[in-house]
Amino acid sequence: MPRAKEKVIVPQIPSVSRQMAVSRIRESLEMLTDEETSICKVAAEHGIFCHGFKRYTDNELRRRYGWIVRKRPGMTREELEEIANDWQLAQQQVHDTDFACDVQTKLHDTCCGWDDFTNEELEGFYKQVTGREVHVS
User: Is residue 102 within 8 Å of 114, Cβ to Cβ?
Assistant: First the structure.
């Protein structure tokens, strides 16, 4: 007697808009920042999200913050990261936002903020910070 075919249920991965994914990632990461610590510093120190300042080689970091380096060419990477962190925090105040990625999305200065990431990268970040899979569209 032939067996009835078993139904295989494949879980659906929910779809979210890019804007919603960014919003949820931001909410999850904001709790790691404070008045003295930008997401760039947090991401670098904890190896999460985009890896912040650590995603750049020494030369690339010096190029991205060249206007700082020109005033103090002998500074160490650690010194540059501290000043860059303070600069990101100052930009957040000037632009009245709590997250460096939002500022950089507008300015495209030291990075391109959220514009640096593909939908697939956002899916990975989303899973990393929320523990849940989504499809970003």
Answer: yes
